[in-house]
Amino acid sequence: MIETLRQVASNVWIFPRDEDPNRVQPNVGIIVAGKHTVLVDAGNSPRHARRIMIALDDIQAPAVSYVIYTHSHWDHVFGAMVFGASAIGHELCRKQLTETAAKPWSHAHIQEEIIRAPHRESQFRAIARAVEDWRNFRIVLPEIVLAQTLRLYLDGTTIEIEHVGGQHAPDSVIVRLPESRTLFLGDCYYPPPMHLRNTEDTLDFSMIRSLLDDGIDTYVDAHGDPIDREGFTRLAENGA
Length: 240
Prior knowledge:
- The chain is an alpha/beta fold.
- It contains 7 helices and 13 strands.
- It has a single domain, classed as 4-Layer Sandwich (Metallo-beta-lactamase, Chain A).
- It has a 7-stranded mixed sheet with strand order 1-2-3-4-5-6-7. A 6-stranded mixed sheet has the order 8-9-10-11-12-13.
């Protein structure tokens, strides 16, 4: 019995988020397209990614061909090294991850960052909990970079990637699966990250309304449960 995956369409699953917000473990999308598996985000750590790999074996998924980064925040990319696959991301994502990869990641570095930027302590504590061992750790930079849109055709499956930006991360992209009528959203309409957030910041309801699509039945963001079209419409109306 497969307990870890949740199927959201005929060839689409998620490895569900951890409901404990302190773990900062987002949903990871799994798209099986013929001889290919494509992931939407890579997990928050190599440990998280290895759990995803076990789940892929459970459904006898093909090897991972591509990992699509919805944006460059650590909890979406730090697991990528495990998959041995090409990464896809926005040009701003590659720029940001190039800077992130240049840092001397270790537990000592995290302690130094907490001292240097105490307002980000909760973020760095979460990273330390997620990544137990920094030996051989590396950040996988996007090999395939988009400026606005990119479309993949893999064994009869269309995967459309579109840059939407937003207040949470300027490099945010969404991933649309027209045949499966599914849309992966990452964190695109979330408020800014906690260390940049003001008390008046809310979800970006303007963006949510722009994402309403008659061709989509299931909306998947990174830190919530999948939402059907009716539920997503209600969410859009809450900000009207």
